[in-house]
Fold:
Amino acid sequence: MIRGLVLLNSGNIEDYLPDLYDWSLTETEKEQHTCQSINEVSLYDNYKENVLKRLANGLLIYILVDKSNNNKRIGKIQLFDYNSRNKSAEIGYYLPLKHRKQGHANVLLELFISTIFERKDLELNKIYATVAACNQASIKLLEKFQFKLEGTYREHYWFSDGSICDQYHYSLLKREYISLSEKNKR
Structure:
């Protein structure tokens, strides 16, 4: 399997967006992935219009594909809330259930980090992610890539079953990424 990232844009949106839309429709654990309000997935045309609008406003969506299998879609990672003054942005990633626990998240994050910190147009110094304290798989992934725990939002995730979970805020600085990359080359 040869995996790579494809940047979603208006020129390729018809090739990739149907899969992202389908993932949104079929995901059964939405409340595990965000502490924001969960809205019903709109009709495809409305979904597409919303994504195009967000892309025009700076959202970057990279899709992990299997290049050896007709660019089969495996997962996605997004960069959003870009702050040019502070040279920072938040990231969020997603793998459909059928692609989890196969090492794809490691590849997705590794490819994304190297891509995003090398983009000259963004000049990013810091990327950050928030994660539910009960999402151990995501926490392990972030920590594997040397993201540092910056803080905790207490009782920030409220679930429909009545349970409550803290939210962790992790970040990675560009200099930390460079240091890690140099250690891995040795």
Notes: DSSP finds six helices and seven strands in the chain.
